[in-house]
Write a structure and sequence with these properties.
mainly alpha; 6 helices; about 80% helix
């Protein structure tokens, strides 16, 4: 009556079973033939997978270190902007630079500079910049984040503190 096999017929079921087993047998033979021809490469796959996993692990460590350096730089800069003592040092630095520039002469020595009343305030703030430079040099702070955050400030103040350069 229909187009397809009559599944109620024992002959049709047997034919379907025979067809399926013949295909599975041929497929299994193909898998075995492939394995037999490529079995010599099996010992190489374990080290290849291990090397690949090692490379991925090294890259993950590199990425984590980069993120940690960026976070350290941002945390430090956030602290410099929020800490009252550091803000006071910056305000002292800002107010004392002009007085120090006016008092400096081309023949002023470091000994004379050290006894000037405004010098400790300026040195205290410049020590913070030195700490940032050391952090960048020792790769504690990310160089790119540090540059983008401090380059404008350092450029302006390096021009204003002419006497100390």
């Amino acid at each position: 009556m229909g187009v397809g096999p009559d599944w109620n017929s024992r002959v049709d079921l047997q034919q379907a079973f025979d067809w399926t087993t013949s295909k599975l047998d041929s497929m299994w033979e193909w898998v075995q033939a492939f394995a037999d021809t490529h079995v010599t490469y099996a010992p190489l796959m374990t080290p290849a997978v291990a090397v690949g996993a090692g490379c991925i692990a090294l890259y993950a460590v590199h990425v984590q270190r980069t993120i940690a350096r960026r976070r350290a730089a941002i945390d430090f800069f956030l602290k410099t902007e929020m800490d009252e003592a550091l803000l006071k040092r910056f305000n002292d630095f800002e107010s004392k630079v002009e007085a120090l520039n006016a008092a400096m002469t081309p023949t002023t020595t470091m000994a004379e500079l050290g006894v000037m009343p405004d010098y400790p305030y300026i040195r205290g703030y410049l020590n913070i910049h030195e700490l940032i430079a050391v952090g960048i040099r020792l790769k504690v702070f990310d160089e790119k984040v540090s540059f983008h955050y401090w380059s404008g400030v350092l450029g302006v103040w390096s021009r204003r503190v002419v006497a100390l350069s």
